[in-house]
Amino acid sequence: MVVGLCFLVGWGVYKQGLYGTVYVQAQTIKAQNNTLLPIYTELKPNATDEEKAKGFISWQRTLGVWLAAAITLAVFSSLFRDNMFYKLAESLMVGVSAGYWFVVAFWSSLVPLVFAKLLPDLAQATVLPGLQIPPGSWQIFGYTAPDLSALFPLLLGAMLLARLIPSFSWLARWPLALIVGTMAGLRLVLIIESDFVEQIRSTILPLIVMVPNSAEAGAPLKIDWLLSLRNTSIIACVISSLSYFIFSIEHRGAFGRLSRVGVFVLMITFGASFAYTVMGRITLLTMRLEFLFKDWLQFDWLL
Question: Which domain holds residue 122?
C-alpha cells in the first residue's frame, strides 16, 4: 500500500508537477461603498495551461487538498488493520467536530441570547455591531437596561459545570433533569405527530378514486384505476402487516395467511430501507474516491 502510494505520487510529480495543486484566478468586484474587493475563483483540475497561466497557485487550498487526502487515506487504512494513522484521524475528527460545534454554540446561543440581553450596549459596540436595540428601552445611567430573564439559563448552565467539583456535583442534576424532561416532552409530541398520527392519516385513503373526465368545469367523473389500485395495495399491506403483530388470535387459516403476507411486506420494507442506507454509504465512499482521483491525483482520464 505504501509502495503503491509512493509510486502514484512519484508518477504524478514526474508527469504534471505536483498532485493536488489548486490554481485560482483573481477578480475584483465593487462593494456597496464603491470599494474594489478581490475574489478568487478556483480553476477546475482539468484546466488548460493557458487558463493556469492567467492565474496562480493557491498554496492554502493546495495544502487543504493534501490534508484532506491524507486524512482520507488514514481512514481507509483501517481496512488493512488497526493502526496509528487511523487512530490519529479518528481523534482529529472528534476533536475538530467538538471544537467546531462549541464555537457554533457559543456564537449562536451564548452571545446573542445571553450576552446581548444582559449587556446590549457592550455587545453592540464589540461583537454584534448589527444588534438592533428596541427604541424606548429602559435606560439605567444612560445605558440600556439588561434583560434579567437571561440570568435563568445562565444560572442553569453554570450549575451544569458544578459536576466538575465533587462536593457540588449534585447541583448539576437540576438543569440536567430540566433538559431531559423538556426534550422528552418535545420529542414525544413530534414522534406522536409524525410516527403515529401522520401514519394513520396517510392510510385513510379512498379505495375507488374518481377524477374529472376532462379539465372543463362540471365534467363527468371517471374511475382512476391506477390510483385506486395504489390505494388498495397500501391499505392491504398495512392491514396484513398489523395482523402479524396481533398475538391474541392464533395465526391459522385465513388469518394466518394474511399475517404471512404481512411478513413478506415487512421483509420488503426492511430490505428497501437497508438498501437505501447502504446506497447512501456507498455514495459517501464514491465521493471520497472521486475526490482522491480527481481533485488530488488529477487523473486526466477521469476529468
Answer: 82-132+139-146
Q: Would 59 be classed as within a structural domain?
A: no
The domain total for the chain is 2
- The answer to whether residue 178 is domain-embedded is no
In a domain, 66, yes or no: no
Asked if 48 contacts 25 with a C-beta cutoff of 8 angstroms, the reply is: no
| 102 belongs to a structural domain | yes
Q: How far apart are CA 113 and CA 118, in angstroms?
A: 9
Give the pLDDT band of residue 13 (cuts 50, 70, 90). low
Q: How far apart are CA 146 and CA 118, in angstroms?
A: 4
In whole angstroms, give the CA distance from residue 290 to residue 296.
9
Length of the chain: 303
C-alpha to C-alpha distance for 186 and 194, rounded to whole angstroms: 12
Q: How far apart are CA 176 and CA 209, in angstroms?
A: 52
**How do residues 123-145 score in pLDDT, each as one tens digit?**
888 888 888 887 777 788 777 88
- The C-alpha cell 379539465 sits at 215
Work out the mean pLDDT of the chain and round it to a whole number: 86
Closest to 145 measured CA to CA, from 110, 119, 127: 119
